[in-house]
Write a structure and sequence with these properties.
Strand 11 (about 125-130) and strand 12 form a beta hairpin. The longest helix is centred in the first third of the chain and has 4 residues, at about 95. It is built from 2 helices and 27 strands. By secondary structure, the protein is mainly β. The protein has helices at about 95, 325, and strands spanning about 15-20, 25-30, 40-45, 55, 65, 75, 80-85, 85-90, 100-105, 115, 125-130, 135-140, 150-155, 160-165, 175-180, 190, 205-210, 215, 230-235, 240-250, 255-260, 260-270, 280-285, 290-295, 305-315, 315-320, 330-340. The chain folds into 3 domains: about 10-105, no CATH class; about 115-235, no CATH class; about 245-340, no CATH class. The strands form 6 sheets. The protein has an 8-stranded antiparallel β-sheet with strand order 20-27-22-23-24-25-26-21. A 7-stranded antiparallel β-sheet has the order 10-11-12-19-14-15-16, with no helix packed on it.
Length: about 350
């Protein structure tokens, strides 16, 4: 059996760096080994404070949400199209302010083609990429009382280990569920827009761990309430391409090594045993050589910062700081990572180090 089914991760995920031109349109073109027409685009202005801008091809490029706030979905000129190898941004300052620099992370689902999914008690609209373990799920909530749960089809044919969900028509937080350090219904649920630790307070947002066909939601403004419209990004791990896990800090500048089985292109780290810590986002394009110092945070609009080093390696990443957001002694951390290249390709060829 081959080590991985994905030899070229740039088919399914890429990062693009670009500068704003302040005009009506600005075409952002990828430079990966393969062309990528994205279905989920996440843009952050690097050079100054500005909210994140997230869009997807299910809802359409004209609609955005921001990971750093609870705002409902807005119609804006931040994005105008998903292109054959990148995307086009419009005149909105979040994505195209003249003289500012930006980063855009992109995932491929199903090219914008959706299907009705009746696997759950709620019929969902799904575009899924089972090869890459990623689906975009749109649905309308029905739950109206405490204790009520519903199931929703996700289309992946394997159980997601990570789901990021946001209500589109209400000012409520982003619910993040993960099975990597517990389960969806314990104290392992948190909000992408906050610095708080996972809390049992949010456990009612989910009704059970996901299965190979559905995820379960409780009665909540963040995941399922009558009249609410929701978008959920579902991820199942794929060997050599994506991994969602946890590690324990040692409080030393010679921090832990985290094995992913691939050379990371993009990863997110969040401390889970204490509040006040950010969702930290780093990638291989902003910092093309080690150490990777540059980062932004998902829960804040602040500009890119440069400290708290991490090394990206051929088979994982190595923490090079004792800073509490990455490596408190005995602290627990969740990570979400996607590949630049697998540790060993499907042809048995190992990747090179940076």
């Amino acid at each position: 059996m081959a080590y991985t089914t994905i030899t070229d991760p740039s088919v399914y995920f890429q990062t693009a760096l670009y500068s704003g031109n302040g005009g009506g349109t600005n075409n952002v073109v990828n430079d990966g080994n393969s062309n990528l027409q994205p279905d989920w685009v996440w843009v952050k202005e690097r050079s100054s404070n500005s909210s994140h801008a997230l869009t997807n091809s299910t809802n359409g490029a004209g609609y955005i949400l921001s990971s750093n706030n609870t705002n409902d979905e807005s119609s804006a000129s931040a994005f105008t199209s998903f292109d054959s190898d990148g995307f086009t941004v419009g005149s909105d300052g979040k994505t195209n302010e003249s003289g500012q620099t930006y980063v855009g992370w992109q995932w491929k689902a199903n090219g914008g083609t959706t299907a009705s999914n009746t696997d759950g008690s709620i019929t969902s609209t799904v575009q899924a990429n089972t090869t890459a373990g990623f689906s975009i799920v749109s649905y309308t909530g029905v739950n109206s009382s405490n204790g009520q749960t519903s199931t929703i089809g996700h289309g992946l044919n394997s159980a997601p280990e990570l789901i990021i969900c946001k209500r589109r028509n209400g000012t409520y937080g982003w619910s993040v569920g993960s099975t990597t350090i517990g389960n969806f219904t314990s104290s392992n649920v948190f909000e992408l827009n906050e610095t708080g630790a996972p809390s049992a307070t949010y456990a009612y947002e989910w009704g059970a761990n996901p299965t190979s066909t559905v995820f379960t939601t409780g009665y909540s403004n963040r995941t399922n309430i009558s009249g609410g419209t929701f978008i959920a990004y579902c991820f199942a791990p794929i060997q050599g391409y994506s991994k969602f896990g946890s590690y324990t800090g040692n409080g030393n500048a010679d921090g832990p090594f985290i094995y992913t089985g691939f050379k990371p292109a993009f990863f997110i780290v969040k401390r889970t045993d204490a509040s006040g810590e950010n969702f930290v986002l780093r990638d291989n394009k902003v910092s093309p050589i080690n150490p990777v110092n540059a980062y932004v945070v998902a829960n804040d609009n602040r500009a890119e910062a440069n400290h708290y080093a991490v090394d990206l390696l051929s088979n994982g990443f190595k923490v090079r700081t004792s800073e509490s957001g990455h490596n408190h002694n005995g602290g627990t951390y969740i990570y979400m990572a996607w590949a630049e290249s697998p540790f060993v390709s499907s042809e048995g060829v190992p990747t090179t180090a940076r």
